[in-house]
Each structure stands twice: as structure tokens, then as C-alpha cells.
User: Fold this.
Amino acid sequence: MAKFCGKCGRPLKDGEVCNCTSNSDKKDENKVQNNNESVHNDNSTNVIDILKGISNGIANLLDDIYYAITPSDKSSDKSSAVAIRKLMGFSQEDYIKPIENVYERGERLTPDLIQPCSEEIIIRQYDICTVRSAIKGLWQDGRLLITNKRILFRLSGRNWRGKEQSSKEFAVEDIAGIDMSYSSKVNFISIVCNILIAAFPSYLGALLGKYIPTLAMILGIFLYLFFLFFLRGHYTFKSIMFFIALNLTINSASVLGEFGEKICIIAIIITIWNLYLASLRPSFKFKVLTKCATDSPISAEKFRITIENIFPADILPGKDAERAMDELGAMINDIQKYGDYGVEKWKAI
Assistant:
């Protein structure tokens, strides 16, 4: 006589044990596991929601305090008071959002960026300079555009906070001349950075000169001779080594007596001179002078950003700077004298 499972009713052979019990146990385990996972996910979601709620609550509280302590600037407010946050520069309008292509690279000043005049013909555009300032985090690309009607100069870039831009233009017939120079100048920030970089190694050299003066004197003289005569350029690295050598010689000068003092004087002169060379940076200046004395010229100098006139921005030559120096004066002179013929001549070059 056939047997049947008492739980699921499935017919069983002699001695066969139904596996419905084990399957049901597995299903129960899966249900428990799924329930545990769902509880864990629910707990994680709850924690995240709680944190978001706390964060939003704090933000809303700060906003309420922020607007409570400053006058309202809503259009419905009858008061003419200006919000203190705007006067202090804490307003949302002061936080500039990142802007794509802030350097305007690959674009022509006109007609891509500046509206063209009627019957205006573009002759040439130069990537003439780059302006930078470590203090402001400033980096701007400078472009000079020549057309048959005007000359335009534009700086486009950004600082630590966001976009920074400036531009200037004059009519071609008002141009009196071009003043350009390409040289080097001492950068004060570079001097400070070179000294700070060399500070710790110099301290180690001072310790060696104090406790092992003879070895320190020999090592200091060797460093000066080696890096002075056998390594050209690399002024920043050499300034570090010279500061180390300077501390070695100064702190061990007593070994050689009066002769050691003379060596120290020579070492100081060499170190200061190399620090000067390490702090030189390229400097590019140009001015487009106008016939009217009351009008300020287009000038890279005018666009220098200063902080209390102590830290001027560096103006570096652009890729077209030398080419502009060679041909800009002749181009403007031909346009002023020959009109359309001068325009066609320079467009063809």
C-alpha cells in the first residue's frame, strides 16, 4: 500500500523520506535572512534620513539667524536699508559659480565674444600675454585683436573665487604708437619661498657646523665650489645648497680664524647673488599709446592686480608676443595710411 507524506501529501516509496521539511526550513531561513536585510536597510536609510534632517535643520537655523540680524532686501520691504551681508561681502551674489571656458581659449574677441562694428574686418589676433598672481590665485590669458576699425585688448581667466575679466578698446585712427618690452624682474614671493624651502636643511648645516666645525668648513667650501662651477642654471636648487653651505661655514668660521671670517663674507655674497637669480621671473610689458593725452593707453601695466601695491601680478609673454612686437607697429601704420589696401596686405600675410 502506497504511503503519503503527512505534511504535503506527496506519495512516497517504501522507506522514502519526504524533503518538504528541509525545503520549508530553507524557505524559512531565506525569509528570516531577507527580513534581516530589509531591517538592516531600513535602519541604514533611517540613519541617513536622520543625518540629512539634522543637517537641513542646522542649515535652516543658520539661514534664519543670517537673515534675522541683517535688514531685508526683498522688493516688498518698504525700508531703504541695505543688507549688512551685502556691504560685508557675505551675500550669495558674491559667490561666483564656476564658468565653463572661463579663459575663452580658441575664440575670437569679435564676433564670438564682443559685438562687431558695421563693416568690421578682422585682421589678426594675438595671444599676447598671461597674467598671474600667487596671492590672488589669478591666472588670465591676454589677447589683442586688430581690425580695420579698432584695437581690442581682453584679459580672461579666474582667481580663487571665480571668473575675473577685463577689456579695453580704441579706434585705430586714435593710435599713436606701440611700446613693448620683454625682460625679467625679481619676484618677492619667490624670494620668500626659496628661503622657506632652504630653512630646514640650513638648520641641519648649522648643527653640523656647531658640533663638527672642521668637517663643516670643508664640506661648506666643497659645496660652494662644486655648485658654483659645475652646475649651470638650476638656481632654486643651488640656492638651497648655498644656504646649507652658508650655515656650515658661518658656524665653523672659528676654525680658520680671520681667514674664516673672509670666507664667510664671500659665502654671504654668493648666496645672496644666487637667491637673486633664483627669484627672477620673465616680465612682459606693452602699451598701445593714444593720440589723446586724456585717454589712458591700453597697457598690461594697467591690468596688474596689486594687494596694497606690494605684490604686483606677473605679466608673462604669450606665444605670439614676439611676433606682435615685430609687426604690430607696421600693421597699424599701414591701416592708418592706406586704409583698405593696408587691411588686405596684412590679411594676406
About this structure: The longest helix spans residues 20-68.
